[in-house]
Write a structure and sequence with these properties.
This protein is of the alpha+beta class. The chain is 53% helix and 11% strand. Helix 3 packs parallel to helix 6, helix 8 crosses helix 10 and helix 13 packs antiparallel against helix 16.
Length: 687
């Protein structure tokens, strides 16, 4: 698994040089983390961002209206392939059995190869399907409805695994060598996280030492590497030396390497077990002088973290898409249940608590889909999506967790009961219990919610920092400070006046009359947010970097306003194209509910209306009284024996007909799929 890194401390580019904002309370370790994270950051904006503009008080509706829809020809390709994948899922994937045995059986791995699902986005010239980002997300979402473990396996393999980094930064030779292997059934993994290094890459301990012949020796351990237990190849991030920033700070240089998992010196120490997506092959790996050929360095020396960030811009979009489709599934079943179940003389959907729950699920599902599809469309257009992708990952995963909890509560005891148990006693086996467990990880992987808040805040603040940063440094000459003051005066005088322009002057005439007042609210909230943030920047100065809860709330408001705008734009586009107002009431509910939430978040920006200071004080007291945990120790782990290792290419090719774990745990094959049927199917496919 990959937990996205980001350091919230602030630095900007000015006149081609780094301009760190000074903070005397910052430690040397914090400075090192800052340097490593900022070195990898993309500094240029290649296109306008709806969320960045919203943060700055400029609600530009043209950035989301008309709502961008998938190209009809591309959508047709997706429709046909999704139908094929859905048929396969129904016949061969038993999510409950996979969850029970914590094993993806061999016949499912063979099905992945048969459908070329390990090469969905790989260009056709290399044997892949050559699918668009939209269709890739649709395929994974369809699989996730049947089994979260299978979807997570495919996502980790090609969203952050070897295929995507090679597509982005690989040489012609690397693409020709490696990309065809995934169409042949090879499985990949990604290695960044360590015991002490996750969101903060400055603490990374795995090293890559260059040899005289140009090869590299890897030493260290990597934790939570999804697919690593069966991977044929992995991308490993490792410290390859030291760098010095232009401001004189030294930090670790991190590079990315392609490593075959059967390389001598690569040991699988442990297969991790989790509360959800139980069948993922996620593990702890140790490298002991594992040799990497010189030609397996990706993207050049020292560019590993930049490559990771670029990979994640598109790579993290699969989770919001899967979350949105999960919410739609919950809505469909919850509505049927609320119409079927009666208590006290009426169906539970007609009681106010039931109606409230259904409305929350429906409105969240619509908004989640709007945000996810918007990001996919921007990706397809080649736009700068770093803010939108991070926001979609944060917002959709939080909303799905809320939706899953509400839907389970509506279902009552049946929601808490396992789907397999419900089926045995003749009830509809909709697996709320498994869905809740599986969805919990989404708020953690590929950037936790807190880390996404810091990432989005960092990017949104660029406008202010690029203008005013010299004022915060004691090293800035007085002449430059005076020039900066004059520059800021010319920029901020008209900008501030614009924030006080009344929103009622905006007509939004192209929108339905019921949507217009809400869009004016979005415009007014956006201006209020920009002013509140700027005011606190001026008052707090460098101390703002420690006010992470404040910045988190500004991000919450920004994303909520953006989802309001996107939902309104999508439903209006539906009305424009078909005349259908089917989803209008859903969107109006969402606009009202989210507006109330935004107002509550605004109140919490004030120190007199929140508990931030009290939390800092209490936490300090608790930490002072607490003892440190002992350091983790992996010295007792000896790793898998060679005979016990499984490789993806053996699973997908049929060399491994039944996995040892599925036999030991008595994996029940789907109806009509006996061993003989599986063998016949594979023989037919081979012919």
């Amino acid at each position: 698994m990959f937990i996205q890194f980001f350091n919230h401390t602030i630095k900007i580019q000015l006149k081609g040089e780094e301009m760190p904002i000074e903070n005397k309370n910052r430690s040397a370790a914090e400075d090192a983390s800052l340097a490593a994270a900022e070195e990898s950051r993309q500094t240029e904006w290649t296109s306008k961002s709806l969320m960045r503009e919203m943060f700055l008080g400029n609600f530009d509706v043209s950035l989301c209206y008309p709502f961008p829809e998938q190209d009809p020809a591309d959508a047709k390709i997706g429709d046909e392939y999704c139908a094929k994948v859905e048929e396969w899922c129904k016949k061969e994937i038993d999510g409950e059995e996979i969850d029970r045995t914590e094993t993806i059986p061999a016949h499912v791995w063979r099905g992945m190869k048969r459908l070329n699902l390990l090469a969905i986005k790989i260009p056709k010239e290399y044997g892949g399907l050559g699918m668009s980002q939209q269709n890739y997300m649709r395929i994974l979402s369809g699989i996730a409805k049947h089994c979260g473990s299978v979807a997570a396996t495919l996502s980790a393999h090609q969203s952050i695994g070897v295929p995507q980094p090679i597509k982005l930064a690989g040489t012609k030779e690397q693409k020709e060598k490696w990309l065809p292997k995934f169409a042949e059934g090879w499985v990949s993994a990604f290695g960044l996280t360590e015991e002490s290094a996750g969101s903060d890459p400055a603490t990374m301990k795995t090293t890559a030492t260059e040899q005289e012949d140009g090869s590299w020796l890897l030493n260290g351990e990597k934790l939570w590497c999804t697919n690593s237990i069966v991977a044929d190849v992995i991308v490993v991030m490792a410290v390859s030396g030291k760098k010095t920033s232009k401001s004189g700070r030294e930090f670790s240089e991190i590079s990315a390497f392609i490593l075959e998992m059967d390389t001598p010196g690569v040991d699988l120490l442990h297969r991790c077990e989790f509360m959800g997506i139980k069948a993922i092959e996620n593990g702890l790996i140790r490298f002991t002088d594992a040799r990497v050929p010189a030609e397996n360095l990706i993207g050049g020396r020292g560019n590993g973290l930049k490559l990771a960030l670029s990979t994640l811009n598109d790579g993290r979009l699969s989770i919001p898409a899967i979350s949105a489709d999960g919410a739609k599934e919950a809505l469909e079943f919850s509505t049927r249940w609320a119409k079927t179940r009666s208590q006290w003389g009426r169906t539970i959907g007609k009681h106010e608590p039931g109606a409230d729950k259904l409305s929350k699920i429906a409105s969240s599902a619509y908004a989640m889909s709007a945000l996810s599809d918007y990001c996919a469309a921007l990706s397809g257009q080649g736009k700068d999506i770093r803010l939108e992708a991070a926001s979609a990952k944060k917002w959709n995963t939080e909303e799905l967790w809320t939706v899953a909890d509400i839907a389970l509560q509506l279902r009552g005891g049946r929601g808490y009961e396992k789907g397999s148990s419900l089926e045995v006693r003749g009830e509809n086996p909709f697996p709320y219990e498994r869905a809740l467990r599986d969805s919990r990880i989404n708020r953690i992987v590929e950037g936790t919610t807190d880390v996404m808040n810091l990432f989005v805040a960092r990017e949104c603040l660029d406008f202010h920092l690029s203008n005013a940063a010299p004022l915060f440094s004691s090293k800035t000459p007085i002449g430059e400070k005076l020039a900066t003051v004059f520059k800021c005066a010319t920029i901020y005088a008209p900008w501030t006046l614009g924030l006080f322009a009344p929103s009622f002057t905006k007509s939004f005439s192209q929108f339905h009359p019921k949507l217009r007042p809400w869009l004016r609210k979005v415009d007014g909230y956006s201006k209020k947010l920009a002013f509140q943030t700027f005011k606190n920047m001026v008052l707090l100065g460098p101390k703002l970097e420690t006010r992470q809860l404040f910045m988190g709330r500004t991000v919450d408001i920004t994303v909520d306003l953006s989802t309001m705008a996107l939902s309104a734009s999508r439903v209006q586009t539906e009305i424009d194209r078909s005349g259908s107002e089917e989803n209008l009431e859903t969107v109006l509910y969402f606009l009202r509910a989210t507006s109330l939430r935004v107002e509550q978040t605004f109140r919490a920006l004030s120190d007199s209306k929140n508990c931030d200071a009290a939390a800092r004080k209490l936490a300090t007291s608790l930490l002072e009284k607490s003892e440190l945990l002992p350091n983790p120790d992996t010295s007792h782990l000896t790793g898998y024996e060679p005979a016990d290792r499984e490789y993806g290419k053996d699973l997908t090719s049929g060399k491994i007909h039944r996995r040892k774990r599925e036999i030991e745990r008595n994996f029940k094959l789907p109806s009509g799929m006996s061993d003989e049927a599986v063998e016949a199917q594979e023989e037919g496919a081979a012919k």
